[in-house]
Design brief:
- Keywords: Cytochrome c-type biogenesis, Disulfide bond, Redox-active center, Signal.
- Pfam families: Redoxin.
- InterPro entries: Redoxin, Thioredoxin-like_sf, Thioredoxin_domain, Thioredoxin_ResA/DsbE_sf.
- The chain is an alpha+beta fold.
- It has 14 helices and 15 strands.
- The protein has helices spanning 2-17, 122-135, 147-166, 173-194, 210-215, 232-246, 256-259, 266-279, 284-294, 301-314, 355-370, 389-398, 415-419, 448-459, and strands spanning 26-33, 42-49, 52-60, 66-72, 77-82, 94-97, 102-107, 112-118, 326-329, 334-336, 344-350, 376-382, 404-407, 427-431, 437-439.
- Strands 10-9-13-12-11-14-15 form a seven-stranded mixed sheet, covered by helices on one side.
- A hairpin with a 2-residue loop joins β2 and β3.
- α2 packs antiparallel against α3 (147-166), α2 (122-135) runs parallel beside α4 and α4 (173-194) packs parallel to α6.
- The chain is elongated.
- The relative contact order is 0.07.
Amino acid sequence: MKKHFFYFILTFLTVQMSFAASISEYAVIKGTISIPDFQAKEVTLYSVEEGKPAVAATAKVNTLGEFGFMIPVSASGFYYVDYGQFKGRNQLIRLYLESKLDINLLINKEHYVLSGKNVGQNVLVQKANEIYNEFAPFSRLGTNITYVDFYPWIDKGVAKADEFSKSIKTKDAAFNKLLKLAVATDVEELTYTFFRMPRSAFPDKDDRPAIIKTWETDKKFTDPDLLKVANGLSLMSNYFFYISMNSAAPARRLDIAEATTHITDPALKDVYLRDAVATSRMKIEEYEKIAPSIKPYMISEASKSFLIEYEKVLHKNVGQKGLDFTYNDINDKAVSFSDFKGKLVYIDLWATWCGPCKAEIPHMKKIEEDYHGKNIVFVSLSLDKPKDAQKWKDFVTKEQLKGIQLMADKDFSSDVAKNYDVNAIPRFLLFDTKGNIINADALRPSNPELREQLDKLLKS
């Protein structure tokens, strides 16, 4: 077995050496996965880049469950071993890597055994990982652990984390600071994540663990070292989501620019804003309104490059000619997109089985009523399956739907769905009087800003 393992590691290291020939200092990680029925063929080692995990290396797992890494370490920091458990917030294997470390890991289903010639600070890191593992089940998708269990436990869990943090007193001040930050981040980020998980029992909105109030502050994120832990960015995102959903005011999406007032460090602002824009699914109109207030903070080359590509994609369809489709109305009369030339056209792609689509219907009715007689056409285009044509007709009649009511011929395989890359509904399309695209992912009728946009277009 030893010969087999040595040969495996030697082969892997020969490949790794080619990536860092000029760097003489390495950390070595050798591991064995001892989990019944384990079938993964690869283990991933993540480093941290801008508060998120980034793949540093991958290693094959042999038939004995063995794997190995020899990785150049130019700067000490956290790395994370993933054999398939990482994203599910299962067992955390976080290591603090420095040059010349030689670490052995024996990985079982619920824990890992640490050994080796030089494990550095990782005995202490393992204790921090155990605290993470105690919090993680409350924020794990599918566990359905409710506030009934979490609220009585959290004070004890936070006290244990605080007590451990106070015990971190090695001779390496930078490591001490980073590990304390990691523990605090784990506890807080997992707590906010708890409130984002599906549950079968829910507390009153005002019923929240008292500890959370102590975490809320006007100047929340001040330490750039938050970008050195893999859940640093997630902490910021989950914090602002929690605040927006649990404030005294009605739930709303927190304004991205508003969030930056709580972030004082420029690097944190830059990274947070880039991620917030990338994940926000903003419409063109929403982005253009907020862009002037956030661009001054997006100062890194990475953010500048991101914005160029983001805006390019956001506007890729603007000005292009709309698809000239022809579909039947409820009386089986053919109606074409070209019939509406000379008017603004607002199209609602929906289906009778779609709950969110039907939730927009009252707003659609109201906006059609308010804009009746103006130079705009409202088209509701059903993506129901062809076999449900009568069901669609009956729904239109029963609900007294107004505007132009059409049904596509092949639901999501129809030309209109394929042309505009529609894979989810409701979806709204807006066209100018020449039949060119204004927005292929337009604002919903329930969004008050749609009326502002239509008013401007009708005046121009």
